[in-house]
Amino acid sequence: QVQLQESGPGLVKPSQMLSLTCTVSGGSITTSYYRWSWIRQPPGKGLEWMGAIAYDGTTYYSPSLKSRTSISRDTSKNQISLHLTSVTPEDTAVYYCARTWPSWYLEVWGQGTLVTVSS
Questions:
Q1: Among 114, 96, 90, CA closest to 10
Q2: Which residues contact 58 (CB under 8 A, 6 or more apart)?
Q3: Over the stretch 15-65, which tens digit does the pLDDT of each residue have?
């Protein structure tokens, strides 16, 4: 059974880059035809899909975040990474990674990690 675990710093200063890693176990990130999404939820707000990377390395980004977001992978470690530049307090959120079907159904979620942007 596939499991996902997000990790990274819990506190980031404004204007810096936020970097998170999603470690996948019980399945390979290169298995056809899955995608691996990053989603976030600010306190008191709804979920926001940020982007994804597919089994073949193709990346997809939310138009509203595309200029600041980069998603990559390390197939040797079976990990997905998220980088978000020029963060502001509005980027404070719980960040999740999720295994995603080709239909964009978010099937399996990690537990999430809270990132606070504050000086």
A1: 114
A2: none
A3: 999 999 999 999 999 999 999 999 999 999 999 999 999 999 999 999 999
